[in-house]
# Entry
Amino acid sequence: MKMNYKFVDFIPDNLEQGYIYISLEYNTAIHKCACGCGEEVVTPLSPTDWKLIYNGESVSLSPSIGNWSFKCQSHYWLKNNDVVWAGKMSTKQIVEGRKEDIERKKRWHSQNKSQNKILKWFKRIFKIR
Ligand SMILES: [Zn+2]
# Structure
């Protein structure tokens, strides 16, 4: 199944099935669920959310898209404009995946915190001298 892409300034009101709309302005991509259920899937682009790979011809998203909050519970990858279906996950796997996500975010923020501490420390030293 193909998923074409459109780079847009604003996310349009009516999304076309089979297209992923990418707004660099808002660091967000949005598309209608690949299963055809009509739900809109928002994938924020950030170091702790999704990563968009654009090679000039096609787009890929990482990690996979798991629509656990939708009825369809579909789970797929977007790889080079192709929807690659992933296996359905058990509730346990979903819960663990979410835990991992939270841990990843915590790690990222604590890393930033310690970097900020170092930065503050440097600033202080420079002020003193
Ligand atoms: Zn769906």
